[in-house]
Amino acid sequence: MTKNASVVDLDQVVVRFSGDSGDGMQLAGNIFSTISATVGNDICTFPDYPADIRAPQGSLTGVSGFQVHIGADKVFTPGDKCDVLVAMNPAALKTQYKFCKPTAAIIIDTDCFQEADLKKADFKTLNAIEEMGIKNDVIAAPITQMVKDCLADSGMDNKAILKCRNMFALGLVCWLFNRDLTVAANMLKEKFAKKPGVAESNIKVIQAGYDYGHNTHSSVSHTYTVDTKGVKDKGTFMDINGNKATAYGLIAAAEKAGLKLYLGSYPITPATDVLHELAKHKSLGVTTVQCEDEIAGCASAIGASFAGALACTSTSGPGISLKSEAMNLAVIMELPLVVLDVQRGGPATGLPTKSEQTDLLQCLFGRNGESPIPVITATSPTDCFDSAYMACKMALEHMTPVVLMTDAFIANGSAAWKLPKLEDYPAINPPYVTPEMKETWAPYQRNAEGSRYWAIPGTEGFTHILGGLEKDNKTGDISTNPENHDLMTHLRQEKINKIQVPDVEVMGDADNAELLIVGFGGTFGHLHAAMDEMRAAGKKVALAHFKYINPLPKNTASVLKKYKKVVVAEQNLGQFAGWLRMKVDNFAPYQFNEVKGQPFAVSEMVTAFTEIYNK
Amino acid sequence: MTKNASVVDLDQVVVRFSGDSGDGMQLAGNIFSTISATVGNDICTFPDYPADIRAPQGSLTGVSGFQVHIGADKVFTPGDKCDVLVAMNPAALKTQYKFCKPTAAIIIDTDCFQEADLKKADFKTLNAIEEMGIKNDVIAAPITQMVKDCLADSGMDNKAILKCRNMFALGLVCWLFNRDLTVAANMLKEKFAKKPGVAESNIKVIQAGYDYGHNTHSSVSHTYTVDTKGVKDKGTFMDINGNKATAYGLIAAAEKAGLKLYLGSYPITPATDVLHELAKHKSLGVTTVQCEDEIAGCASAIGASFAGALACTSTSGPGISLKSEAMNLAVIMELPLVVLDVQRGGPATGLPTKSEQTDLLQCLFGRNGESPIPVITATSPTDCFDSAYMACKMALEHMTPVVLMTDAFIANGSAAWKLPKLEDYPAINPPYVTPEMKETWAPYQRNAEGSRYWAIPGTEGFTHILGGLEKDNKTGDISTNPENHDLMTHLRQEKINKIQVPDVEVMGDADNAELLIVGFGGTFGHLHAAMDEMRAAGKKVALAHFKYINPLPKNTASVLKKYKKVVVAEQNLGQFAGWLRMKVDNFAPYQFNEVKGQPFAVSEMVTAFTEIYNK
Amino acid sequence: MSEYTAKDFKKGQPRWCPGCGDHFFLASLQKAMAEIGIAPYDTAVISGIGCSSRLPHYMATYGMNTIHGRAAAIATGCKVANPNLTVWQVSGDGDGLAIGGNHFIHANRRNIDMNMILLNNRIYGLTKGQYSPTSPRGFVSKSSPYGTVEDPFRPAELCFGARGHFFARAVATDAPGTIEVMKAAQAHRGASVCEILQNCVIFNEGTHESVYSAEGRKKNAIYLQHGKPMIFGENNEFGLMQEGFGLKVVKIGENGITEKDLLVHDAHCEDNTLQLKLALMEGPDFPVALGVIRDVEAPTYNDAVEAQIEDVKGKKKYHNFQELLMTNDTWEVK
Amino acid sequence: MSEYTAKDFKKGQPRWCPGCGDHFFLASLQKAMAEIGIAPYDTAVISGIGCSSRLPHYMATYGMNTIHGRAAAIATGCKVANPNLTVWQVSGDGDGLAIGGNHFIHANRRNIDMNMILLNNRIYGLTKGQYSPTSPRGFVSKSSPYGTVEDPFRPAELCFGARGHFFARAVATDAPGTIEVMKAAQAHRGASVCEILQNCVIFNEGTHESVYSAEGRKKNAIYLQHGKPMIFGENNEFGLMQEGFGLKVVKIGENGITEKDLLVHDAHCEDNTLQLKLALMEGPDFPVALGVIRDVEAPTYNDAVEAQIEDVKGKKKYHNFQELLMTNDTWEVK
Ligand SMILES: Cc1ncc(C[n+]2csc(CCOP(=O)(O)OP(=O)(O)O)c2C)c(N)n1
Ligand SMILES: Cc1ncc(C[n+]2csc(CCOP(=O)(O)OP(=O)(O)O)c2C)c(N)n1
Ligand code: SF4
Ligand code: SF4
Ligand SMILES: [Mg+2]
Ligand SMILES: [Mg+2]
Q: What's the whole-model pTM score?
């Protein structure tokens, strides 16, 4: 270890903040991401919460992590492993060290590596670094003490002072990356607008952390800058996670359609933040009803849809199971409805805070009878906005429930997002009944797209009844006629089949790839990164990443059959591969499956894909 | 029409009884079936209930039908069309005539073809037969009047007397087929054991109907006998419908396993009769709990399973949607549970009294997370017994929920059933913990088949906790470890994959078929009949009918790939074909799909299959 | 005067069994709606599944015949999203109190402004005769061949247990009584539970026998009217008085008891103690209470949602999507 | 004397936040079980999902930590299928009264013999702080940033509305009070609802403040005991008396009031009017009632199921599968 640090210019860097759940690692990570984004880097973040609310303080199960990937150019994932690890206590070091690159620098708070702390994390000796055999650069700073010193005159109590430890660490990291602290200061001022004292103290501590690094040149070989030279989209940006982007997409679609936004929901990790977000925006007329259960959440949304709102219901996998009967009602009544599934680990209660893609077949098939529902899967935190918007548009224009799938990884992960302009988004035109139709209209009469018309209660001349029983294909009266049922079954199916979705794009070596990687939903970033890495290694590889699952894009079969080898990579046991096999004749791809509740590791995929490539 | 009837000997005949819901057609049909079975014919029945409880008397929607197919040899279906139609009123004639063969004889009650009656059925003239252009033989008898005359001295009131009209029609049919009335008399005596007067009257009326036919030789060209020459299984038989057979299968399995049978259920057509049947048999210790909803039905069964019972829950499609979250709990807890889905028309409430096969993918996939559940589909009314038994055995021995699928058609349809001997059925051996295991046992320790052991509360030394969260692969403690989750996901999947099921049998021209028909579940009879008909026409055809859906039989791929052409025929839009495509590489079969809520018509299938054959 | 007649609310040909109580109720409901005078196109009738839940098919209003047990939840969304609609929610005892029990209690607790009709025939009609959560202990049905072993819910009691503010009861065959109750339910702002004693002639004939005929009601029922003393009997000869925490039947004129001594019905009383006692009265010792038993004003959920939106609109500075975006920390890339 | 100590019921290291009321309750429950003396292996503890529902993980009994809201239904099947087991069902206010509301009311109505623990912290803890059906009107939470617009359930009221026969209340931090209530719940044959006032230090700190400390309870609570006059206050200076259909607080000694004038608690009274009034008492005007508020004997569902099976076994002539077959119309093919 050298005490003389030089400045190294990097293309990209991964920083991981970790500490006890109460240590404020998410905030520190968030601020650091925003600072980086503000200077023009691309960012991609991944908060890695512990499963328990609050495991015993200092325990191995109570560690909370936040990883951010910062790039001069576009970054697609939060990174497999980190270049800098902040470990606020021994438990963090022990559980998070595995995320370090061999060259990573580690920042620890020596004040928290005392005997009692070490014991809580099951260390046997008093030297954690040695015990773990760590050879990396370690910045061992007495953070707690320095924070205490720094705020001695603040009038804050000890507990409040200790809450600022994260800001010291942040300051140190900012120094390490030669970051300007102004942005952080502004963010804290806004966050604590009502408590200027707290903001002040936090800012003071950040500065102290920065200065500490600067003054001691700490114990690292070099500090870094991440260039901002990449070709940049110009405009106004913000940092947004997937759940917030989803909520924003729903709001935007409602405004565009000129409809009231209604959310019927029941809290469930990791979807609850969408409810939280929407509940805030009453000034936009958003109505959120926290229902007694998921069934009521979906049922009330169906009532709201009938009543003329843009109706949504949000949940995670177990909630989809519960909602499935009501979703089916929306299918047969042909009412617009957006059902959000933020996937988590299953089966059953499973791994509530972890991410996987195991709800796909449930969303496609989890209802009695022939019950076709369009499915859209968002591919990144920011894409949640577009996907939510398109889900609303599809639901409203085709009078159908639509399932919008995201997952814990993109829901909690964030990225820089260029603020959209609503006028750039396509119009939303539900097939409303018109006054001229009064004489001839019938509830199940259909337009050219096969959609029935929407007659909203309160409109004179269009009273009608909808229901869960099979109905006559025109009048909507209850019908058990065998031919009618066969016809209605086909009409419902064809309506969905006919929905126009964009072709799937082939990225990379579209013309001459030896291997096509196929994926869907939230793994886009990782698959793209894997492709990039393989191409960088001289391989001919392409990626077809699906966002529209049902109906599949028109060019699906031709894309899938064009390449010699195809691997479908997904975080389940092969659900998307199965769906494609059902839909595309003679398609028997390679598969890459992992069900670990964790994001894919790009390096593992590259190894696996290369093996297939070389076969 | 001639008045001179000769006796014609038939191989098989189809009789359809139809009338108003209140006319007792089901009873008449049942008795006729049993009489026929008793003399040694094979039978297959199909009750065709109206959808409404009680539509207006005499209305078109209130017609209730009962069709029975009687054969000298094995009969596989209730028959596409009938040789004799009983139509007790104009509405019956109007709606049921379409089920008549061109040569069919029709029996009507002229007393019920009066002006008012005809109007209720929307006839415009006073001659229904002419108005419909019917050219068939018609036995037009003043049934009502003759019943009144016959029971004038019985002391019964008019309403009660009119209830005996069905028996007159039955008597006529018995005459037409030269049936002995003793069996009918005995059945009625038992049915009305507590009201001997009613039995007496009914018997009298049957005799009157018989005599009327005999004396007038009625207006038909000939009467019939159906030979009993076919090679017969010897033994004791009864007529049983699928729901009753299912209930019996559960009872038999519980007795064999030495466990208490517990059913948690909520009424739903067409599954409720299983609850009704089991509720009767408290003398066998069967416990039925009618719960507040389907969720509680399944949840309480899980509680009962944990507590050491053979636990079942019964429902139809919408109920499966509701139970799916709880079923998933049984998956992750690895507790035995039999979930019965008596399929009906969907989606949503759909067509509650009609039959289809549209729940297959829901049963396979309708749960969040990777959630493998074995699926068994019964193939006929009597096979419901064996399937239910095997579902219990599989659930108990592999510690897993099992879905047993039947459908409205086989649930309500009946056939002659040779009484089974419980000792001929395979033993059921759940993997109980043994006292010796006390020291070493852990809740998720597995045996050679990959099943965990069953430690029933009340047993000392084996206290443990199960739960819906992912758990350590040995101890069962809550675990969010990524590798452990991946492992558990695979262990659960492989446990199901490894279950031994019998190979699928290829019937017909197994060696040299040009066309393989593939089906599953309740369509067996129809597919078999279609195959028979095509083979009789000189075509080389085979049938592979699946009962075990998940896991599929080991020989599935080899069977499916062996024949030049394969057609998968099912009452949905292609769910089983889709499942096979997922599981068998490069399998792209022809498909025959119909979603009409009605049994397949053999003739239509033969036409469609022949077209494929000739392609 | 209303511009509508019952005919304006009628549609199609009801398919219930002849004599089914649902026929009677339907006719009364249509009359009541005409008298209330809200347009059919401003009215939504929402039911679950069951014989009784077929009702919306016979109404010339907007309607939904949905899935089993969810009518109250669906109606909740309908009302909250579009408070201008008048919402009637129709369920049977199975639909409303078995599978739909949770939505029933939560709709009452939240006090959604809708009329919740419970057609109580103490049986599952549509599925052909299983016991329901209102069937009496020992009831023999297809699913309880040896009699049930559980007590029934008493709808008023459950409604009150869930903090319900309106409860009324009518007999399906009693048109004036039903119409009065329907009008009161509509007049009440908030969740209005109306229990309709309805006879299933096929599977539970006679379950409400004591009060199903006009003569029966004269003998065995008491029509409660707010502000009126509690008098009943064929010749108005009986009355109700308080006794401890309970009630007793007295004969007017006997033991010096006059009308003045009788309890006076207070449907508006916030405390529901007496209302509950009245609602739970049963024969042969007590008359069955009909009419509006509880009718207490309270803030409704839907009004409060609207008010909160208005309130927040006034306080917050962003009112459209572009403004919302600008409430975030943003940065410029030039 | 019981052969067990609390240790025999302990397992693992609880993972709740330091200071969480669940820690206190768990310790009391384990002590109570030891005193009750039923073997851990004859005991099943069944919960749903929530912080509170983690409890079975810390019990050395048989247990299930199941899915959200279904604990009562699962426990029902467990008890009915195996009546020899002692069944404890543990839920939070969300688990038991939001998603699980229907099972809660039906388990009470059926009177399943099990102990139903409701850990009421008036918040969804595990999902990090949304309002629950017991949160007070106006409550600000993550999902109600401008305050809720609905009244909460009052668990006793809902329990009684569902015909519950046992209701008791204890404060999580009050070990003797909790243990007493647990023992009474176990002694009661039938569904025993125990509301535990439990503090969520993270998301709803202080919700039960007035009675959470021993001093608080001295001032603001009344311990009800069957057969004892209703006295409370730091110096036992206050009492409760009836007033009309309601209650009033009186000072003993003032206006000539003596202990004799006070209401005497009758937990066994079939009529629940007074019990409900007691259960609903709130500060500042009334004390919060603790202890066993209602405890009335009634036939249990599981006992009745067993009795019916025995009864039918005696009456019917077929007792195994082969005999069952022969009850049908059969014929011989030779
Ligand atoms: C999810 C679901 N479960 C069960 C059923 C079957 N089902 C239809 S109506 C009904 C009960 C009807 O009883 P009730 O609500 O009292 O209405 P009634 O027919 O007596 O008027 C049941 C169990 C269903 N359609 N859907
Ligand atoms: C079907 C389903 N819906 C929602 C959730 C999310 N969830 C878990 S616990 C909980 C509520 C917890 O509140 P409570 O029952 O009061 O328990 P506490 O954590 O407060 O002890 C919710 C909504 C879930 N796990 N499953
Ligand atoms: S079955 Fe009963 S409730 Fe249903 S329509 Fe007939 S009489 Fe009415
Ligand atoms: S979040 Fe609240 S309820 Fe949950 S463990 Fe922490 S203090 Fe207890
Ligand atoms: Mg009913
Ligand atoms: Mg809670």
A: 0.96
